[in-house]
């Protein structure tokens, strides 16, 4: 277990876990999604096949029954025998699956019939003569009673040696639209058997058609024909008119193949039939099993690659940390010329360069502090100069204090990181170290700005700009922060050109916007209007506000409000001092209104054209 006591091994383990965690989660999610969507796709494919086959069956029967719906070109109720014979012969010749056809009078007596099994036409006399062959009376049969009312009739399916058959009937009309006879026929359902037989899904899916008794009358696998399923609740629901779309839990059932299947079915209500498709689950989900195996193989390879990368990265990252620690100690002890040489090409190298710059800046500040002290002694005779020197000394003293404190914290946290026993402790100390370094960077940056816009600043370069365009540039650079904190930004500014020191006024807008973004809850509003020869700018937020006891010191160097410090964000207490120096250097004014926990409104009043330009 000694391997896991080193920082490098712990980094490798953490990197592997953090790297693979999301990957494994995404893999599981993807497989679950594929399984669920594939189940839906199976149901969709089954329903598409059922709709297609239902349409083909309907087309065959509609085409056949359509031949029986005849409007004869006669005005009365009598059709000559030769015409009846001609119509029946024509009917059988037009459709080879019509086996027999007959005319029945409105009294229910069979008048004339023909079938394919006879070489001659069998004719029944219309004359009611007891010496002649009496026609059959079918007045009580459904095929007559339904058709005589003007409706189509589809009879039950029955089996013959040549295949399934069905009786159909339709009314026979004269040219006045009156029913004068009933035309019935026996049709072969072999085309329907063929429609069903050529249907399949995947390698093992099959289709079958059942009649009103629940008997299989056609199937893509002939071994299931004549099998009766009427006692199955699922089949009963189909015959009762319920559609099964293959998506319900009950649609996963034991199929005709005596294995679990995903089934779907549609009723053919006007015939009393139902069409069913069953796809064995193992065959239907074969592609998902293949994908699952590929994902597992890929995951295993990824684990190996991530573990190796974690070890290599950990070794590369941790080695320079000791160099940074040593350099921080030396710079913190006052050896500002010490240079940290880290060449990693990443953020750690940038951190080392920040340390080096910080050391040089601290050296310059120390030298500047000594020079200012000497200048104060030489300017004793001038009150204003003495005051300025005093302020500079105070500024440098505060600066030195502000820099030494985070340096000491960074030093301390480097030691704590090295001595940390758990990853949680190490993460906490690294977080504190990062915050301290950011504070150092912010102080150094603000010091650079203060060196340009310090006490007594007077602008030397003037430029005519549109303040609204300048603000848009400042806001555009901060859009990621606005989006991240979901801040609603509102702007209402005059587009009138004004003469300002540039980039000095841009620095003011940047500082005020940065403060607003840092401390607001969810809204920032910037407004501006012309007031005589001045422009009045307002930057307003709805944040934590400024405590009443802190308001008198808000423009003091290195001062930060108590509630601002409690937020533990990076800040130097120099931003508002810089703003005040710049605004007063333009002959303007800056002030604020603030209420705790309600927000702060900063006001800036600038002349449209400074006196120096006039």
From TrEMBL:
Keywords per UniProt: ATP-binding, Cell membrane, Coiled coil, Kinase, Membrane, Nucleotide-binding, Phosphoprotein, Transferase, Transmembrane, Transmembrane helix, Two-component regulatory system
SUPFAM superfamilies linked to this entry: ATPase domain of HSP90 chaperone/DNA topoisomerase II/histidine kinase, HAMP domain-like, Homodimeric domain of signal transducing histidine kinase
Domain HAMP, first and last residues per copy: 315-367
Histidine kinase domain: residues covered: 398-610
An example molecular function term from Gene Ontology annotations: ATP binding
Topology class, membrane: Multi-pass membrane protein
Entry's EC annotation: 2.7.13.3
Upper lineage: Bacteria, Candidatus Doudnaibacteriota
Catalytic activities: ATP + protein L-histidine = ADP + protein N-phospho-L-histidine
Domain of life: Bacteria
Sequence intervals crossing the membrane: 12-36, 295-314
GO cellular component term, pick one: plasma membrane
Coiled coil: 348-385
Compartment(s) of residence: Cell membrane
Name of the featured protein: histidine kinase
Major enzyme class: transferase
């Amino acid at each position: 277990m000694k391997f896991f006591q080193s920082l490098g091994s712990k980094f490798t383990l953490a990197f592997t876990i953090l790297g693979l965690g999301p990957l494994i989660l995404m893999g599981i999610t993807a497989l679950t999604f594929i399984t669920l969507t594939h189940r839906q796709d199976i149901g969709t494919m089954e329903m598409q096949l059922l709709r297609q086959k239902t349409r083909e069956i309907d087309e065959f029967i509609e085409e056949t029954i359509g031949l029986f719906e005849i409007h004869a070109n006669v005005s009365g109720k009598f059709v000559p025998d030769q015409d009846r014979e001609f119509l029946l012969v024509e009917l059988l010749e037009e459709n080879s699956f019509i086996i027999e056809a007959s005319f029945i009078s409105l009294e229910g007596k069979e008048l004339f019939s023909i079938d394919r099994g006879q070489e001659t036409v069998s004719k029944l006399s219309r004359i009611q003569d007891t010496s002649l062959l009496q026609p059959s009376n079918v007045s009580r049969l459904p095929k007559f009673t339904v058709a005589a009312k003007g409706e189509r009739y589809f009879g039950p399916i029955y089996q013959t040696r040549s295949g399934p058959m069905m009786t159909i009937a339709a009314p026979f009309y004269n040219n006045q639209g009156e029913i004068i006879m009933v035309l019935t026929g026996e049709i072969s359902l072999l085309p329907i058997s063929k429609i069903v037989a050529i249907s399949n899904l995947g390698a093992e899916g099959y289709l079958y058609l059942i009649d009103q008794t629940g008997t299989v009358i056609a199937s893509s696998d002939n071994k299931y024909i004549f099998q009766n399923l009427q006692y199955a609740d699922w089949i009963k629901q189909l015959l009762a008119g319920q559609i099964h779309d293959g998506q319900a839990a009950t649609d996963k059932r034991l199929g005709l193949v005596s294995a679990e299947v995903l089934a779907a079915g549609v009723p053919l209500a006007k015939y009393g039939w139902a069409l069913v498709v069953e796809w064995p689950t193992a065959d239907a989900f074969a592609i998902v099993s293949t994908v699952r195996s590929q994902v597992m193989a890929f995951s295993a390879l990824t684990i190996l690659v991530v573990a190796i990368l974690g070890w290599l990265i950990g070794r590369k990252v941790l080695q320079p940390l000791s160099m940074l620690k040593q350099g921080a100690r030396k710079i913190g002890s006052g050896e500002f010329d010490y240079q940290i040489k880290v060449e990693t090409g990443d953020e750690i190298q940038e951190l080392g360069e920040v340390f080096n710059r910080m050391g040089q800046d601290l050296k310059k500040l120390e030298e500047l502090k000594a020079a200012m002290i000497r200048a104060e002694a030489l300017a004793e005779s001038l009150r204003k100069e003495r005051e300025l020197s005093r302020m500079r000394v105070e500024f440098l003293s505060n600066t030195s204090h502000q820099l030494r404190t985070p340096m000491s914290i960074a030093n301390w946290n480097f030691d704590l990181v090295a001595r940390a026993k758990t990853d949680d402790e190490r993460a906490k100390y690294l977080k504190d170290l990062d915050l301290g370094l950011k504070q150092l960077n912010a102080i150094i940056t603000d010091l650079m700005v203060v060196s340009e816009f310090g006490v007594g600043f007077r602008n030397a370069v003037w430029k005519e700009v549109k303040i609204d365009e300048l603000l848009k540039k400042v806001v555009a650079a901060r859009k990621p922060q606005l989006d991240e904190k979901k801040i609603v930004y509102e702007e209402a500014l005059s587009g009138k050109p004004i003469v300002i020191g540039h980039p000095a006024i841009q620095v003011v807008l940047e500082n005020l916007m940065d403060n607003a973004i840092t401390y607001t809850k969810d809204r920032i509003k910037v407004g501006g209007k012309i007031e005589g020869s001045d422009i009045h700018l307002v930057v307003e937020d709805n944040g934590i506000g400024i405590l009443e006891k802190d308001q008198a010191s808000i423009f003091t160097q290195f001062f930060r409000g108590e509630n601002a410090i409690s937020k533990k964000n990076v800040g130097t207490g120099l931003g508002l001092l810089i703003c005040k120096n710049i605004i007063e250097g333009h002959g303007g004014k800056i002030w604020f209104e603030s209420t705790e926990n309600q927000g702060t409104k900063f006001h800036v009043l600038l002349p449209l054209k400074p006196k120096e330009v006039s």
